[in-house]
Write a structure and sequence with these properties.
Helices cover about 30% and strands about 20% of the residues. The chain is built from nine helices and eight strands.
């Protein structure tokens, strides 16, 4: 049984995207150009690693995993909830896993129901009562015979089937971050097609590096072995209130270090006046470096995302900030701060 910090990097990354950003298996699959089932397999493997040994079947554990991660349709979630209510063993395993997932979740996890009495057919008319004191019975987890105690969470069991063999598919997430450090642009309102140049702090990724990352995304783990997510920076409004939230994943491949920034509930950008979001490393208004502008505007959905390379001196800055800039000229100083996060959330050696 592992803690989230000791999970494999690809497993931890997919849990962070699901629980921290509210992503679905399908959305993550679209990011990586793989099948949603392959994303689900990585997520279930992560929960297997977090849970205690158990005799529960693969199907039972998989259903609980999808339920806790909010990936089920309402009818399927109801069926899993019913199974949890009927099975002390499933509830015990689910509660341990849920407690491990809690610190990663931005929103409350699905409720694990209490046990309930089994449905016992009514006695025939000539049957004498066998339980003259029904109030003394245990109505939680009643099996119709003797009360069944909850099994201990650490109850030993036979070996579980492995879900970790084969290609580590979610490891390509880190390679995708490295390969995709081409989204930021130099000027506000530009696009990666109209402005192929990058700002001074944005990645100058060689064609060789890009080809290596793209190749790893399709078939092999050679690039993912050297590309890994090494930390994350939680982003929040300076005032601490509101629904706006974000995360910046820090990825590293050799000497190349990058950020993948995801934010939700961000105010939409406008064309009159022209507004655009920009990312900065920040100490003070006079000591900040712009990583670049987000190449895509924000619609009413409020979703914002992009990637950028970290400069070699990133560790000397205190904050990563996301600002809303106004006008067509390239900003030299940060505008109003929408999100900020302390770089101290990641050790200096990893920046």
């Amino acid at each position: 049984m592992n803690s989230p910090e000791r999970l494999a990097g690809d497993q931890r990354a997919v849990l962070q995207l699901i629980l921290g950003q509210g992503r679905s298996y399908a959305e993550i699959a679209g990011m990586l150009s793989i099948a949603p089932d392959e994303v689900g397999a990585r997520a279930r493997a992560a929960l297997d690693a977090l849970g205690p040994p158990t005799t529960l079947s693969d199907a039972e554990r998989g259903g609980i995993a999808d339920y806790l991660l909010g990936q089920l349709a309402a009818s399927d979630a109801g069926a899993v909830s019913d199974a949890l209510a009927d099975s002390p063993g499933q509830r015990a395993w689910a509660r341990v896993v849920s407690s491990e997932l809690g610190p990663l979740a931005a929103d409350p996890l699905p409720r694990i129901p209490d046990g309930r009495a089994a449905r016992v057919p009514p006695p025939a008319p000539d049957t004498h009562p066998t339980d003259p004191h029904p109030d003394a019975r245990n109505h939680d987890d009643d099996t119709g015979a003797a009360p069944q105690p909850e099994p201990p969470a650490d109850q030993p069991a036979g070996p579980r089937s492995s879900r970790t063999g084969g290609i580590v598919l979610l490891s390509v997430l880190t390679a995708a971050i490295i390969a995709a450090i081409v989204i930021f642009v130099v000027k506000p309102g530009g696009s990666s097609h109209k402005h192929p140049g990058r700002s001074d702090a944005v990645a100058a990724v060689s064609q060789k590096q890009t080809n290596t990352s793209a190749s790893s995304s399709s078939q092999t783990t050679s690039a993912s072995a050297s590309a890994s997510i090494v930390g994350q920076i939680q982003l929040a409004p300076p005032s601490g209130g509101g629904q706006v939230t974000g995360t910046a994943f820090v990825a590293r491949q050799g000497s190349l270090r990058g950020l993948a920034i995801e934010a939700k509930h961000v105010p939409p950008t406008t064309t009159k006046p022209r507004t655009a979001y920009a990312a900065w490393l920040y100490n003070s208004p006079g000591d900040a470096v712009r990583l670049g502008y987000f190449s895509k505007g924000v619609s009413k959905s409020g979703d914002l995302g992009s990637t950028a390379e970290l400069p070699a001196n990133a560790a000397r800055y205190r904050l990563l900030i996301i600002t809303l800039q106004t006008g067509d000229t390239t900003a030299k100083t940060p505008g109003p701060v929408v999100l900020e996060g302390k770089l101290s959330q990641v050790s200096k050696s990893k920046l």
